[in-house]
Amino acid sequence: TEEIPEADMVVGIGSNGKIAKLIKDALSGKVQNSYGEKFSLDLDGKRILGGMPYTAYLKIADGCDNCCTYCAIPQIRGRMRSRKIENILEEARELAKNGVSELIVVAQDTTAYGIDLYGEYKLAELLRELCKIDGIHWIRTLYTYPDKLTDDLLYAIRDEEKLCKYLDIPLQHCSDEILKRMNRKGTKADIEKTLSHVREIVPNITIRTTFITGFPGETDEQFEELAEFVKAQRFDRLGCFAYSAEEDTPAATFENQVPQQTKIDRAECIMADQLTIVGEKNAEKIDSDVEVLIEGYDNYIRC
User: Fold this and answer.
1) What is the DSSP annotation of 94-133?
2) Run means of pLDDT, 10 residues per run, the chain, 303 residues
3) How, if at all, do strands 61-62 and 81-82 pair?
């Protein structure tokens, strides 16, 4: 509240369980801040749907251990904590009873699910169990890291009808040097091998990714390498963002920060190239039949 004087209170995730009392205190004029231990945040409990009734996010873990140098999530959310499989399945069944037909499985790193709790990656097993729930029609998985994409997971995506043939794989860059400074696992060659392997096991899979332009020290040559990589891989969906220095992250203190306009120009260049790729991919779908989730309709009929 010192930095934001108009705020009545600032509450950390560790104080989530006290939110009702804190609001009551604030309404009575008692201004306070409250920060509990991050691991105090309860990941289970009764679910309240605040969005559309037919789709729901299903959080399977919180926090992250990857510690990418540009990212503040480990500071904000803490270390990774996986939920128990039985608790996740219970929530999913309740969502299905309430009319949810599409589940979006999410965590900061879904592919790491279970390693802290069970000593091994359990995402594939969890997804197969979710597929057994009556009423759930589609299951989509977000934020899968390339170094943790197991064959077991890929076979589950290939074989289970309810699992969307879709992966969101945040790659962030392809230059070996920049990947190392980002504290990302693997090299460009590793990424290319992984993408090829994914497409081999799951034919016609839709791959979405994200990239960062203007990371500290990114040279013109490294940016051109990224641009050529995007053109060569022809991702189905792609988001590209100009690097933003997050407070208290290692990358914010790196030398050779790239000028803001250069970062923006590079991001726009990548997105312009991707727009062409998406247009070509969309054209390939003409005259094909696809299953869709209808979110609504209107009564207007064009005569």
Assistant:
1) HHHHTT--EEEEE-TTGGGTTHHHHSS--HHHHHHHHTTS
2) 74 78 81 70 73 92 95 91 96 95 97 96 98 97 96 98 97 98 97 98 96 98 98 98 96 97 98 97 94 81 58
3) antiparallel
Tokens representing 194 are: 């992984």
Instruction: Let me know the angle formed at the C-alpha of 172 by 171 and 177, rounded to the nearest 5 degrees.
Output: 105
Q: DSSP of 58-103, one letter per residue?
A: EE-EE--S---TT--HHHHH-S-EEPPHHHHHHHHHHHHHTT--EE
Give residue for tokens 């560790």: 14
Q: With contact defined as beta carbons under 8 Å apart, do 235 and 276 qualify?
A: no
Q: How far apart are CA 40 and CA 143, in angstroms?
A: 24
- Which of 83, 144, 75, 139 shows the shortest CA–CA distance to 114? 83
- Pairwise CA distance, residues 149 & 62, whole Å: 19
Q: Three-state DSSP class for 266?
A: helix
